[in-house]
Amino acid sequence: MVHDIQAPPRDPRGGAAASAASGGAPADDHAARSSFLAHVSHELRTPLTLITAPLEDALAHPDLPPEVRSHLALVQRGAARLTRMVDAMLDFGRIEAGALEPAPVDLDVAAMLRTLVEFFVPTMERAGLSLVTDIEDLPRAAHLDHDMVERIVSNLLANAIKYTPRGTISIALRDLGESLSISVTDTGVGIAAADRERVFHRFERVATPMGARSPGGVGIGLPMVRDLATILGGQVTLESTPGVGSTFTVTLPYTVADPTGTHASITPRGAASFVAEMASWRGIAPDTRRPPTGHGRAALLVVEDNPDIADYLSSVLADSYDVTVAVDGAAALECLDTGRVDIVLADAVLPRLDGHELVAAMRADPRFSDVPVVLVSAQASWSDVAEGLTGGADDYLAKPFSLAELRARLATHLGRAMDRITTAEAFEERQAHLQRALESHRVVGQAIGILVERHRITASQAFDLLRDASQHRNIKMRDIAQRVIETGLDPDQA
To answer: Over 50: is that where the pLDDT of 476 sits?
Structure first.
């Protein structure tokens, strides 16, 4: 049986107008609440970074006592859930106020899904699950909100991993003519008939089924899927059999209307943050790999005005890099002028000269134009990320970030930069070698012409004279030829 799960119809005047019309809070109250939630969410991201990143690093330590590891793992799970709740509360508040509207862009949904799924592959492998992808290329681009679609699919994949102790997870994309469908199917524990609508109710707690990798959540993932699908003009269907598995299918129109005014966008929460949260679930082995550092140590410049985060990043990255800290973009440029810097990790929001302005200054200076820059920020909407990348940054990470992901991205961009340098040096060396070879051919050819004219011999015989003189006197043929040109002497006398 298939169950259609849809939110109630939205008032065309928006949440605030609808609420006022029904005797609820006035528009000013909704605006104040949304503003408060946005401010709190932003402020909580920095301390959450200082909780989650050190925890991840501590749990990766091989000599950590089991009792301490158990306590820290508990804190890590709580911090990850808190991060998810902070973002969800902000977005639910915006939805309630009618302020959350899609910011549609032309989107290649197939390409996006293939990229998104790759983030979850290592976690599925460590959980012993198989992945099946059946992603068809669509006949045209969709005009949808990138962050909303990403949040929908990430929630569904995380939900499937959580409730699939063994077997397979599948994702499929289909063209339906005027709409498209994204389906996520698992061979997990399934959902009882009585709970199939309850799982879409906000903060509704459903009994955790046997085999789940984590205790029951607080009821924010699947309700967010339904709310976002509704905002995009679509719907969610659920088909499930206990003990067999579940299929969630999201149907979306190809085109959603552009917002008519100034509205809030969804809080970005990329796939990496879901993966970080899942790392502590039962049956998923931790990934404690570190990026290779080679024989030398690269010089990393950390640009961060928060002293706690700067100190933490310096300490945890000092095993792989020679770390220098600058408090803002202006100080970073001074460091670039006075010392060696191989890669830069900078906060996007800084006093004096911010991260975006630092990137612009570096890209305008030939000395630093090729130095990779990774920006981090608590403000990481799709437009913020686009601004950073189009401005010249090599990557953009949202706070709170995973330390393992940060290490991997730094290593990746540093490796690419080193590859570019090596390739450029090799090209220059080949060019120089070719230039030397051409010059040698020119000199030898000129000497052969002189000998042919002087002795009335063939070019082959003249070359033999130069070669014999080079071998007998142990002098390079080019040098013998140059002396013939300069002195007019024969090769054996020159």
So the answer is: yes
Task: Specify which residues 5 forms β-bridges with.
Answer: 236
Query: Which one, of 182, 178, 187, lies nearest residue 113 by Cα?
Result: 182
**Cβ distance 4 to 235 under 8 Å?**
yes
Inform me whether the pLDDT recorded for 23 exceeds 50. Answer: no
Contact indicator for 136, 173 with CB cutoff of 8 Å? yes
SS3 (DSSP) at 29: helix
Phi, psi values for residue 289, rounded to 5°: -65, 150
Q: Residue 16, CB half-sphere, CA atoms under 13 Å: how many?
A: 13
pTM over 0.90: no
Please compute, for residue 290, the number of CA atoms within 13 A of its CA located in the half-sphere on the CB side.
Answer: 13
- Give the position of tokens 């995380």: 158
Collapsing DSSP to helix, strand or coil, 22 comes out as coil
312-to-19, 168, 288, 309 alpha-carbon distances in Å:
46, 39, 18, 5
Angle CA(120)–CA(188)–CA(206) in degrees, nearest 5? 100
Dihedral pair phi/psi, residue 491, rounded to 5°: -55, -40
Range 39-68 average pLDDT? 80
Pairing of strands 129-135, 167-175: parallel
Orientation angle between helical segments 271-278 and 146-162, nearest 10 degrees: 20
Tokens standing for residue 337: 């002028």
**Highest-pLDDT range among 245-254, 297-306, 391-400, 450-459:** 245-254
